[in-house]
Every structure is written in structure tokens, then in C-alpha cells.
Specification:
Length: about 475
């Protein structure tokens, strides 16, 4: 007998409800189809992992170890580990450049019963997720959590695979217990995606998590400063505007992925596994995640090595310019100026990257002006004006700076006027043109005075001639 709407409302008010199975029978609805029973041991065997069961559910745990003598492209894992282990001071510079909630030195003490970190001092935990989609929100789940740490002179990778959505609480608990042994998080675009997504899952399950409290280095931001818009290098063409790990690993280590699964295909492979119970499609997904973790460690190590060694470690002018920008953000202005000077000289010798040459000279002039060395700044502005192929916006800025310098410091009004006239010839921005015309009128009034004493050659010209 069918249940009326009034009876259902009374059941809701009284706190009782009929079984869903009975409702389906009364409405003559078939039960939803179910996939085959999952053989956990079989899944673990296919993925070369372990089937770990707990009170909340089961998780497939896969461990891999990358020894120091193993190569990642042309870079030994041992070199990556060495840069990571000796980079505590460089981490502080990186933190000042891209600050987060708390610096690494401000880590709160753990609870008395909590385990100690495996590497006290600098325990970097590299984290990367594979998810059921990229849209985010409460409907997106992380079905694979990959973590990597420095251990026994190599890189130890542990992956937590979700065998079914009903086991998510178990996965989150195991990840929380394992990451509690670390103290610093390193991700790639983790501040915008990975950490907010997994924190949402913890909140939905009402589980505690310390991931959002960890000092967090998101290496996407320094990577953009250092390697975005790279010039063409030897080898297959790269996407110059891309800072994906698969592109950076080719640029930094010459590592080329063979048979790698595309990122857009990863969710469909996991859904296929959920429906069929066949774990073979996930082998390539786990390998993709492991390569991402090793490449993340490579990018971090290369960044720390650049910070430690300075502009002499840069491989090309654009990288040297990016290192100077990173130093500048961290407040290391002397080191930044050295990078800008070397990048400008290097790009000028090569002659194929006018944008790098011009940007380096501009930042060099600003750094000198900030340090109070105004005449040296004028030399950099003058060199910027004569860079072949210089972007017009930078040339206008340089001419305006030189006009100000010659008008108010060297007192060479005629040179200042010529700079304004040249700038007006290629200026289309109304606001800038109005400002330049006002300066030109002021200079004409000054030049129209009956007497104007002849001044000696200013210091900037002497430096330029020497």
C-alpha cells in the first residue's frame, strides 16, 4: 500500500522514516546497479602496494623509494636532496618573498603525545593530489594523495589511494596521521587548489587537520618569476608561457615523460576503476603522481640553489632577471641589483631578448634610485633608451626619468627638453601626454629666461664616458 503525503510528513515530524528499500518496492523502482565486489588484495597487488584496513575503512598505500644515485633526467636524486637539506637559510629568503600564514621558524610545538618529525629542523613534505575534477567545491574529492619526504639519503614517496568513496574518512585519517610527522608543506599551486580542497574534505567529515596550519611553500609563484616565458632551448619545442611541472622538468633536468597519462584523463580512469574494480588503469595515474612529486622536489631544489649561489648560477639572462625579482621581493636589494646588472649585460651581449634587456635595465635603474645613487640610475635609464627593440612603454618611462634627472639634478634643461620632445613623439596615452606637455611648457619657460649660466658636464655623463 502506498504511503500518503500526510503520513510521510508525520513520519518526518516524529523522527521516523521508512526504509529506502521499502519505498523503492512500493514505487516499483529497481535498486541502483552495483559494481562487482572489490578485491582489495588484488588491487594492492596490481599497484604494488598494501591494503590497509582500519575502523573507518580501507586504503591502498603505495610506497616507492628514489635512491640518491637514481637519475631524474640529467639530474641525480642525490643532488636534489643535497640542495634541499642545505637550504634552510634559502627557505627563509623564499618565505620573505612569498609569505604565508607563518614562517618556518614559527612552527607551533606539537602535542606531548604526537610523534616527532623524521627530519627535525627542516622536514619538507611535498604534496600533490589527484582529484575527481578540477572545478573544486564540495563535490570534488581527492582520490589519490601523494606525499614525498627526504629519508635515508633519498626521496621516499607514499601514496594513499581511495578504493571507494565510502572509505574517504579512512584515507583522510591516515593522511593526517602521516603528515603530523612533518612540519613544512611544499606544493605546486597548492595554496589555490590542493590544500583548500583537502581541507574541505576534512571539514565535511568533521575531522581535525593541521595542513592549513603548516608553513606552506607554493612553488608555482617562484617558478613563474624564474622560468615563465623562457626562450627557445635545444630540444623539442616547449610551451614558453607554461609553468606546468611536465614543462619545467624538461627545461631544468631534460626529463621527458614517456607514456604519461594526460591530466584530463585521470578522473575518468578512476571512475572506471570504481565501476569495474580493475586497478590496471590506475597504474599510469600513480606513476604520473610520483613523477610530479619528484619534479616538485627538483623545482624546489633548483630554486634554493639559485638563491644560495646568486646570479652566477643562472643559466640564461631571463632566469637571472627572475632571480633578481625574487631577491627584490624578499628585501635583499643588494643581491637583486647584482642580478639585474648581470642580466642586463648578458642580454645585451646576446642581443636576442630585448624585453629581458630592457626590463633588467629598468629594474637596475629603480634599484639604484632606491639606494640613493641617482646619477648611476641615470646611466641605466640612458642605456635603456638605446636598447634596440625596447618596448615603447619602457622607453617612455626612461625618457621621463631622464627628463626629471636633467631638469632637477644635472640642471641640463636643453637635454631634459629633448627627452620630453622625443617621448611626446611616440606617446599615445592621454594622461601621460598631458603630463609631458606640462613639463615641456615648464622647461620652455625656464629656457626663456635672459640669463642661464653654463653648467659643467654632470656626473652621469662622466660615468657613461668612462
Amino acid at each position: 500500500m502506498a504511503i500518503s503525503l500526510g503520513d510521510r510528513l508525520r513520519q518526518v515530524v516524529s523522527g521516523t522514516r521508512p526504509a529506502m528499500r521499502d519505498l523503492r518496492i512500493e514505487r516499483d523502482e529497481p535498486a541502483p546497479p552495483r559494481g562487482p565486489a572489490l578485491d582489495g588484495c588484488r588491487v594492492a597487488d596490481v599497484l604494488a602496494g598494501q591494503w590497509v584496513e582500519g575502523s573507518e575503512g580501507a586504503v591502498v598505500v603505495v610506497d616507492r623509494y628514489y635512491a640518491a644515485d637514481r637519475m631524474h633526467g640529467r639530474t641525480p636524486i642525490g643532488d636534489i636532496i643535497e640542495s634541499l637539506e642545505s637550504g634552510r637559510a634559502e627557505l627563509d629568503v623564499l618565505w620573505r618573498a612569498f609569505p604565508g600564514r607563518r614562517p618556518p621558524s614559527a612552527i607551533e610545538p606539537r602535542n606531548p603525545g604526537a610523534p616527532e618529525p623524521q627530519n627535525p629542523g627542516t622536514s619538507l613534505c611535498f604534496l600533490d593530489l589527484e582529484t575527481t575534477g578540477l572545478a573544486g567545491g564540495a563535490g570534488t574529492q581527492a582520490f589519490l594523495v601523494g606525499c614525498a619526504v627526504v629519508e635515508d639519503g633519498g626521496l621516499s614517496v607514499r601514496q594513499f589511494l581511495l578504493p571507494g568513496f565510502e572509505h574517504e574518512r579512512a584515507l583522510l585519517g591516515m593522511v593526517a596521521a602521516w603528515t603530523a610527522q612533518q612540519d613544512t608543506l611544499v606544493t605546486f599551486n597548492g595554496k589555490s587548489f590542493d590544500v583548500p580542497l583537502i581541507e574541505t574534505r576534512y571539514v565535511l567529515h568533521r575531522l581535525p587537520s593541521r595542513l592549513a596550519e603548516f608553513p606552506h611553500f607554493d612553488m608555482l609563484h617562484p617558478a613563474r618569476r624564474l622560468w615563465k616565458q623562457r626562450p627557445t632551448i635545444v630540444g623539442p619545442p616547449l610551451d614558453d608561457d607554461s609553468c606546468r611541472l611536465s614543462v619545467l622538468e624538461r627545461h631544468l633536468a631534460g626529463y621527458h615523460r614517456v607514456g604519461d597519462v594526460p591530466g584530463f584523463e585521470i578522473p575518468s580512469r578512476y571512475f572506471r576503476f570504481i565501476r569495474s574494480g580493475d586497478a590496471h588503469p590506475l597504474e599510469a595515474v600513480l606513476e604520473h603522481n610520483r613523477i610530479d612529486l619528484v619534479s616538485l622536489a627538483l623545482v624546489t631544489a633548483r630554486t634554493l640553489a639559485l638563491i644560495r649561489r646568486g646570479p652566477s648560477a643562472a643559466m640564461q639572462p631571463r632566469e637571472c632577471l627572475g632571480l633578481g625579482r625574487l631577491y627584490e621581493r624578499s628585501g635583499a636589494f643588494a643581491e637583486a641589483e647584482a642580478c639585474f646588472e648581470r642580466a642586463a649585460s648578458w642580454a645585451g651581449q646576446i642581443g636576442r631578448e630585448p624585453d629581458v634587456h630592457a626590463d633588467a635595465l629598468r629594474r637596475l635603474a629603480l634599484a639604484r634610485r632606491r639606494a640613493g645613487r641617482l646619477f648611476e640610475a641615470a646611466v641605466a635609464w640612458q642605456a635603456l633608451v638605446h636598447v634596440p627593440g625596447c618596448p615603447s612603454v619602457l622607453r617612455r618611462e626612461a625618457r621621463e626619468a631622464l627628463a626629471i634627472h636633467h631638469e632637477h639634478r644635472s640642471r641640463d634643461l636643453q637635454t631634459a627638453r629633448s627627452m620630453v620632445v622625443d617621448a611626446l613623439a611616440d606617446t599615445v596615452v592621454p594622461k601621460w601626454r598631458e603630463r609631458a606637455e606640462y613639463r615641456l611648457q615648464r622647461l620652455d619657460r625656464k629656457l626663456a629666461r635672459p640669463t642661464h649660466p653654463r653648467l659643467p658636464i654632470d656626473e652621469a655623463e662622466r660615468i657613461a664616458r668612462s
